[in-house]
Specification:
119 residues, mainly alpha
Length: 119
């Protein structure tokens, strides 16, 4: 059996699918079963929302303050300005996240291209 597993090209893909399914689907099913019993204004869900918001804020802060790759080539002031612009558009569009993110991306890319063209 060990030789068969080592020689088949598809075996790693099967393991990835099974391990990925087990790692995520169990939590999804537990969420479905527990979700019907949780109150939306309960302490647990408030805590979960706070943690999720903090994680998103941390990722955004890291991308702005300590970028890697191509984003690191943009100046800090441009990243901050794009963030402020996206935030303003988010509120102007009745808090549509997608619109705010697209606006910030368009601002950042336009600013980056303009700076690149200027020199």
């Amino acid at each position: 059996m060990g030789d068969l597993v080592a020689e088949t090209w598809w075996w790693p893909y099967v393991m990835i699918l099974v391990a990925g399914w087990l790692a995520t689907d169990i939590w999804r099913w537990l969420g479905v079963f527990a979700g019907g019993r949780l109150r939306e204004d309960g302490e647990l869900l408030i805590w979960v929302r706070c943690v999720a918001t903090a994680l998103v804020a941390g990722v955004i802060s890291k991308l702005i303050l300590f970028p890697q790759g191509v984003l690191a080539e943009t100046p800090l002031w441009l990243r901050l300005a794009a963030t402020a612009f996206g935030f303003a558009v988010f509120f102007a569009s009745r808090q549509r996240v997608f619109v705010g993110v697209l606006a910030a991306e368009a601002f950042l890319i336009s600013g980056w291209l303009l700076l690149d063209a200027l020199g």
